[in-house]
């Protein structure tokens, strides 16, 4: 049931990183365009250091990468990593739907009172 490319630690880091609204917003922004840490810091009501910590958590989860461009550090979202998370969630959904289908089939079976 586990997505092949992801270890349990990978999954834990990824979903822990995505559990925070600011980090999800950073991922959204960086999937659209590369953004500097300075630009990100301007967008939030928190210190530059706090934004850097959020980026570090996302980097550790491999949801973003940071690369130097001159004096700036540009942050880029990693769509392949998001796809991995989506595949994992899809597998959970398939399990859930299978369970619902089995329940539906069970409820459709005639009971002893209905047979006679």
Could you explain the architecture of this structure?
The protein has six helices and three strands. Helices cover 66% and strands 12% of the residues. The protein is elongated, with a radius of gyration of 21 Å. Strand 2 and strand 3 (72-77) form a beta hairpin. It is of the alpha+beta class and 116 residues long. A three-stranded antiparallel β-sheet has the order 1-3-2.
Secondary structure layout plus pairing:
Blueprint (H helix, E strand, L loop, with lengths): L7 H11 L2 H12 L2 E2 H7 L4 H13 L3 E6 L2 E6 L1 H30 L3 H4 L1
Antiparallel strand pairs: 1-3, 2-3
Task: Summarize this entry quickly.
The chain has 116 residues and is an alpha+beta fold.
Features:
alpha+beta, 116 residues, 12% strand, 3-stranded antiparallel β-sheet
**Major sheet characteristics:** 3 strands, antiparallel
Radius of gyration: 21 Å
What best-fitting shape do the alpha-carbon axes yield? elongated
The termini sit apart by 42 Å
Number of strands: 3
Mean pLDDT: 88
């Amino acid at each position: 049931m586990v997505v092949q490319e992801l270890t349990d630690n990978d999954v834990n880091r990824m979903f822990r990183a995505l559990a925070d609204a600011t980090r999800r917003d950073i991922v959204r922004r960086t999937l659209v365009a590369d953004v500097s840490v300075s630009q990100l810091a301007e967008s939030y009501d928190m210190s530059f250091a706090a934004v850097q910590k959020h980026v570090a958590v996302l980097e550790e989860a491999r949801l973003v990468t940071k690369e130097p461009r001159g004096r700036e550090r540009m942050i880029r979202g990693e769509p392949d990593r998001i796809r991995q998370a989506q595949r994992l969630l899809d597998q959970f959904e398939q399990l859930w739907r299978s369970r619902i289908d089995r329940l539906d089939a069970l409820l459709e079976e005639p009971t002893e009172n209905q047979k006679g």
